[in-house]
Write a structure and sequence with these properties.
The complex is a heterodimer. Chain A contains 13 helices and 24 strands. Chain A is an alpha/beta fold. In chain A, the strands form six sheets. In chain A, strands 6, 13, 14, 16, 17, 18 and 21 form a seven-stranded antiparallel beta sheet that branches. In chain A, strands 7-2-1-11-24-23 form a six-stranded mixed beta sheet, covered by helices on one side. A three-stranded mixed beta sheet of chain A has the order 3-20-19, with helices on one face. The mean pLDDT of chain A is 97. Chain B is mainly alpha-helical. Helices cover 57% and strands 6% of the residues of chain B. Chain B has helices at 2-14, 40-53, 67-78, 81-102, 111-123, 129-147, 150-156, and strands spanning 30-32, 37-39, 168-172. Chain B has a two-stranded antiparallel ribbon. In chain B, a hairpin with a 4-residue loop joins β1 (30-32) and β2. In chain B, α2 (40-53) packs across α6. Classes of the chains: A alpha/beta, B mainly alpha.
Amino acid sequence: MGDNNNTFDAIVIGSGMSGGWAAKEFCEKGFRTLLLERGRDVKHLVDYPTTNMLPWEFKHRGQVPYEIAKDNPIISRCYAFREDAMHFFVKDKEHPYIQEKPYDWIRGYQVGGKSIMWARQTQRWSDFDFEGPARDGFAVDWPIRYKDLAPWYSYVEKFAGISGNKDGLEELPDGEFLPPWELTCVENHFKDIVASNYENRHVIFARCAHLTKPEPIHIEQGRGTCQARNLCQRGCPFGGYFNANSTTIPWAAKTGKLTLRPHSVVHSILYDDAKNKATGVRVIDANTKQDIEFFAPVIFVNAGNLNSNLILLNSLSKRFPNGLGNDNGLLGKYAAFHNYRARINAKYEGMPDFKTEQSRASGAYIPRFRNVRKQETDFLRGYACTFNAGRYSRTRQEGFGEELKNMLMTPPVLGPWNVGSQFMGETIPKETNFVSLDKDQKDEWGIPLLKINIGYDDNDEKMIKDFFEQYTEMFTKAGFTDIKTSDSKQAPGLDIHEMGGVRMGKDPKTSLLNAWNQLHECKNVFVSDGACMTSTSTQNPSLTYMALTARAANHAIDLLKKGEL
Amino acid sequence: MNRRNAINNIVILSIGAVVLPSCGQRKESLVKFKNFSLSDSEEKMLGQLSDTIIPKTNFIGAADLKAHEFTLMMVDDCYEPERQKKYTAGMKEFDKLAKNKYGSSFTSCTVPQKKEWLTAIEKKKDIPENVVFFYETTKRHTVQAFTSSKEYMTDIIKYKMVPGSNFKGCVPVKKA
């Protein structure tokens, strides 16, 4: 193991949503970067085995066989775990963890991580979100405000390609948008009803990471217009949506500065007690189980929220006997997520003479309207919602024989409008929601198993109740009928918006990371995935991780150039 | 997953495979699946049932698509053991009741008798629950085999894998 081969200018742990950005920023600025990924390589276009498969080419027509579902109850609860994308998800037994409370940990161990299968919703945070903890007295104050992140939102939006309207909403700032798809008739109807009945409630088109009209930068990436196939979870042959595989990683690779190393399970970050800094990482080769050490002056931890927590907790040294940077004992604590338990569905008998045509890859969005400008309910914070209204065609399937066959071959009858909203609630980070390492049990690579102790609380229950009340009222005012609310009671984690444990903050006594995502106590280690989140707000978080990562990486580059890391 | 694919492939090959009859008395050959076996006459009956549900006309039907093999594969691969047992028990009961009613097994029934029997099951009146389950499961997967076939999706619904980004949120419904 020659030093030259194992020494880089920067190491990035994790090649998904945020790690790809760190690698891109370092490589573009000329830094030799090692990008570590614990799973296999997935090359854009090449490693999307199902992307062009036709419906009848799937043996079980999309269904997951019983044996697989039985062996993998956790991952089988994920909506995207279907025959066409099963290969991108971690199976339960391959990577066990300990549920001290029920927790569905949904993972994708491969180059690109979960950015291959994500739902591609990209809403910005506003100061109403960043100021939340300080105003409402929970967690700690965020060390940054919207003005700190706004230019970096723009930076990542332009490169990734985000479509949306400029809606002019203070609570959901506008960005750099490609044209949006249209709202449907009934979505527009609902938008009008909501606007005329409520102050500060808005129905907009959701901002999403789809190239509705590629700019030159996207063409240069080799990506093209989204064709609205809605088969994104397979990987896109057009590069029509953002994933790390089509966008950040190849961009980093073409600089010639990138070393991508799949099958590299990071065991821990190496800390030098004499130099008072991290010097590299210890990797276990996933296949050979061989121990390898890599070195660099700066390390970015983007392993995916809970795994970033795990790596820091497992990085032990004389200086940090309880985990890297963990002087205050808060590492792994104040974990949070988004509450995705609740839904509301209804029908609309109006507008029978109108329908939609063709398809789109996203829908409407209703930003949080509860407790935005002031506290107004008996629970803290609030919820955003999706909103979708469409008509579905129905083919009658009665009887048998030629009668049935004729029905199946007759153009289907348009049903009434179906409308529905998915609730996305902010959860309050608490010390009692935490992850830790098991003292005895280890995985195949000799790494302690993660114990997850994360649950709902009374605030979450009150918020669901309010959502049912408010949306039932809004739906009723819009003339929707057959309104049905449902609470899936699903465990935390299935939202796949896990956050926290290595939170940002101003004070090293009460937080792990500073305003630049550096560990307060080990400045050359940066954490900029979901683990850094001080609070969760309600927006789909990936865009914020991307912006935080680009910002942190460029700060690290400035410090390195000045010799300050 | 590769291992599982290999197993599945073996299963496909074994559909229709014949196990040699044992010596002595004449015994029906068995069609083996991972989780259950059928006699070849039962498999034949299922083929006829599918064919009755979606017959061949000037457009392909269940028999062209081997819809009964698809149905059995789905029951074998995607159903929990209890529902598999219910399905095969329902199948035997289906044939037994046909025999009681018409004096011959479903396979030997006349076309009008077959239709009468299926009509009776559709009405669900005095029909054992597992027979209804067997029939509805077979119908569902026969319809699925038909509506997800290349021929149906290409010629009838004109499925486009790449629809293009031409979404219209509000267009008038054209009156026929």
